[in-house]
Amino acid sequence: MRRYWREALDYFLLTLGTFSIAVGLAVFQVPHRIAAGGLGGLATVMHYTLGLPVGLTMLGLNVPLFALGIRLRGWRFAFKSLYGTVLLSGLTDTLLAVTTTPTGDSLLAAIYGGLLVGLGLGLVFRAGGTTGGTDMAAQILRVYLPGSSGRVLVLLDGIVIGLAAWVFGLELALYGLLSVVLAGVVIDATQEGVTYARAAFIISDRAAEIGPAILHRLNRGATLFEAQGLYTGRRRPVILCVVSRAEVSRLKALVAELDPRAFVIVTGVHEVLGEGFKEIQREEDHRWTK
Fold first, then answer.
1. Mean pLDDT value of segment 265-271
2. Residue 288 lies in a domain
3. Residue 226 covered by a domain
């Protein structure tokens, strides 16, 4: 039963994400001739040069990508992607027919269009599908290429932005590039979470005192492991501790009190799963099958 609820949630996220993408395209990007990469950007160029409908053009351009997706990622991947692609095509053409853009400023259109498209794609990716286009290609290529979905998308979208620069001019192409960058950032934030916690690596000879202080005074867990300095060759204890942003100052004050000579590295953490943070959820339903 839990599996069916998970599947229903996936399709809800897929639908919500697809609607967000359609709004970004139809309300902001297409009316301002902002071709922000992908098949949506290519369809925008074809709409203004050949008079073709944006949504229907995207659907037609996706056919070869679906063939490749079925071959490499399996029917389940293709079915969810087909749902997202057909829905996006219909929603985009419908919104273009019944809505108007709320702004005459192309910069605002690029910003809000990029944010909405990025949010939508992030939700679609979390649901285990795509809406076709270069986001489908990104999901396929991520099997073979390093990097997150957002970065792969930026690489693929560069060609379309170059075409937009030739057709619409450099200024509108730069607006399109801004939309692509914003979308990539929002995609990664949606999938990985925003930086809401901090991880601290504490290198100190007084780790035996700092560790218990973290446990009892901060009420946070910590992990102690041994490392070796490459320059000195000495083996040194290292404490790893993850705290909320509000607790960073208390942690630094605690370390400074116990060992002013300690070496502390504090870095941002996108997602923390486990006791004291977010509950771990099984991701089995999101594994692609071949």
1. 83
2. no
3. yes
Q: What is the pLDDT of residue 140?
A: 63
Q: What SS3 string covers 3-67? A: HHHHHHHHHHHHHHHHHHHHHHHHHHHHHHCCCCCHHHHHHHHHHHHHCCCHHHHHHHHCHHHHH
Q: How many CB atoms lie within 10 A of CB 89?
A: 24
Cβ pair 195, 201 in contact under 8 A: no
Residue positions counted in the chain? 290
Q: How many CA atoms lie within 13 A of 80 on its CB side?
A: 29
Please check whether residue 143 lies inside any domain of the structure: yes
CATH number of the structural domain spanning residue 214: 3.30.70.120
- Kindly report, residue by residue over 100-149, the tens digit of the pLDDT: 999 999 999 999 999 999 999 888 888 877 777 766 666 666 666 555 55
- Phi/psi-derived region of residue 152, left when phi > 0, alpha when psi is between -120 and 50, beta in every other case: alpha
Query: Do 101 and 214 fall into the same domain?
Result: no
* Structural domain range at position 19: 2-192
Residue 89: partners with Cβ closer than 8 Å, 6 or more residues away: 55, 56, 58, 59
Separation CA 157–CA 216 (nearest Å):
51
Number of compact structural domains in the chain: 2
| Cβ within 8 Å of residue 240, ≥6 positions away | 199, 200, 201, 202, 222, 223, 224, 225
Alpha-carbon gap, residue 31 to 210, rounded angstroms: 59
Are both 67 and 122 inside the same structural domain? yes
Q: Do 158 and 60 sit in the same domain of this protein?
A: yes
| 161 and 120 share one domain | yes
Give the whole-angstrom CA distance, residue 12 versus residue 25: 20
Q: Which of 183, 158, 160, 21 is nearest to 92 (CA)?
A: 21
Is 289 contained in some domain?
Answer: no
